[in-house]
């Protein structure tokens, strides 16, 4: 358990700036998830913290110690990569035991057995302990790779899309396990993902990166409800936020600087007629059924734009029906995609 301070870190792979003057303070026991599009600088940030890349400027502090010039093995961090990296000639048991047998840690074989067995049980791989690492499926290999990080107790865990190669069920299970383990052990985590469900469920705070800039840092609720930019607003939320030019919703009185109106589907309230408070008219184009909600694709009257509303089954209606709708909450953005507060 440790805190992490990233102080004004920059790194470019000439001429591409991968990370720009990044400041990030992570308290001991926090689970910070970095989100962002491909090429945003997420992996580079993890590699800088691990010491696998040297920054052009700035410092990395772990537990009050400046480790910027410290070799990766001496930083007491563990890194789980997107692509499993096991020792193919070793068994699952020996792969899991490997970090504990490092000369830097003097762990007895009895203690190693206890820890490896506990981790294997948690990963549901007890019956595979004697398998060579090469005789595993991709998902099993990744579980061993995660187990190898969990088996020791580093100051800091760095994880780069560790669940992305797993099937949906295992991914859900391991996500819950990771959260439980992190809460039980009080581990400090810096975790990269593309998956918004992982970000929303795992993170104590989410950092959104874009082109090497930290665009926003906040709790999942803050980032979802109060996004700083259009890009952040559209990164979180499923179904995605509706983004419409202001002209598409002429009944809303919006400030002059607004170019785009963002409306989350749960904030489009559909009513049968104007007396229920419906302010605008639309035609149901399509009805999509999800597990516990319906998505109505609404063609706005007098416009080519479509608005998606998420409604309860009883409100669904049918394609071709005319409905009224009311927008209970919207987000405004200027022509540069920056939030306009109102
Ligand atoms: P992804 O989600 O696709 O993994 P990312 O957010 O992790 O993306 P990075 O891998 O950190 O992004 O890359 C940030 C930028 O730095 C990209 O423009 C990338 O092409 C560049 N980059 C990263 N590593 C190198 C490298 N070793 N050499 C040259 N350019 C690199």
Strand portion: 25-35%
Spans with pLDDT under 50 lasting ≥5 residues? none
End-to-end separation: 41 Å
Name of the CATH class of the largest domain: Alpha Beta
Note the overall shape: globular
pLDDT averaged over residues: 90
Number of beta strands: 19
Q: Numbering strands along the chain, what is their spatial order in the largest sheet? A: 6-7-8-3-9-10
CATH architecture descriptor text of the largest domain: 3-Layer(aba) Sandwich
How much helix, percentage-wise, in residues?
10-25%
Ligand inventory? adenosine-5'-triphosphate
Topology:
Elements: E1 4-13, E2 16-26, E3 31-35, H1 42-50, E4 57-62, E5 65-66, E6 77-80, H2 92-97, H3 109-122, H4 138-150, E7 156-160, H5 168-185, E8 189-192, H6 196-202, E9 205-210, E10 213-218, H7 220-225, H8 230-235, E11 242-245, E12 260-263, E13 268-271, E14 280-289, E15 294-300, E16 306-311, E17 322-327, E18 331-333, E19 339-340
Parallel strand pairs: 3-8, 3-9, 6-7, 7-8
Antiparallel strand pairs: 1-2, 1-4, 4-5, 9-10, 11-12, 12-18, 13-17, 14-15, 14-17, 15-16, 18-19
Bound molecules: adenosine-5'-triphosphate (ATP).
Describe this entry's structure for a reader.
- It is built from 8 helices and 19 strands.
- The longest helix has 18 residues, at 168-185.
- Helices cover 23% and strands 31% of the residues.
- It is α+β, with helices and mostly antiparallel strands.
- Bound molecules: adenosine-5'-triphosphate.
- Adenosine-5'-triphosphate is lined by residues 13, 16, 18, 36, 38-44.
């Amino acid at each position: 358990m440790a805190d992490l301070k990233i102080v004004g870190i920059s790194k470019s792979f000439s001429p591409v700036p991968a990370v720009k003057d990044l400041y990030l303070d992570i308290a001991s026991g926090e689970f910070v998830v970095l989100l962002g599009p491909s090429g945003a600088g997420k992996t580079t940030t993890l590699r800088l913290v691990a010491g696998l890349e040297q920054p052009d400027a700035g410092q990395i502090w772990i537990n009050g110690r400046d480790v910027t010039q410290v070799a990766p093995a001496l930083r007491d961090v563990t890194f789980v990569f997107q692509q499993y990296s096991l020792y193919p000639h070793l068994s699952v048991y020996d792969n899991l035991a490997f970090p504990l047998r490092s000369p830097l840690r003097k762990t007895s074989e009895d203690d190693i057995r206890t820890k490896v067995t506990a981790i294997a049980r948690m990963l549901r791989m007890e019956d595979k302990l004697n398998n060579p690492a090469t005789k595993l499926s991709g998902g099993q290999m990744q579980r061993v790779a995660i187990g190898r990080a969990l088996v020791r107790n580093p100051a800091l865990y760095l994880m780069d899309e560790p669940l992305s190669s797993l099937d949906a069920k295992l991914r859900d299970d391991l996500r819950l396990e990771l959260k439980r383990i992190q809460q039980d052990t009080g581990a400090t985590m810096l975790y990269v993902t593309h998956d918004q469900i992982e970000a929303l469920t795992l993170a104590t705070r989410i950092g959104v990166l874009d082109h090497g800039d930290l665009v926003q840092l906040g709790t999942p609720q803050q980032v979802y409800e109060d996004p700083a930019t259009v890009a952040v607003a559209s990164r979180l939320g499923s179904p995605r936020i509706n983004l419409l030019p202001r002209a598409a919703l002429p009944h809303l009185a919006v400030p002059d600087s607004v170019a785009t109106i963002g409306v989350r589907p749960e904030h489009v309230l559909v009513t049968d007629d104007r007396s229920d408070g419906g302010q605008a008219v639309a035609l149901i184009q399509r009805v999509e059924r999800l597990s516990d909600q319906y998505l109505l694709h609404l063609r706005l009257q007098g416009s080519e734009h479509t608005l998606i509303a998420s409604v309860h089954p009883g409100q669904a209606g049918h394609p071709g029906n005319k409905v009224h709708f009311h927008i209970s909450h919207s987000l405004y953005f200027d022509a540069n995609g920056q939030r306009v507060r109102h």
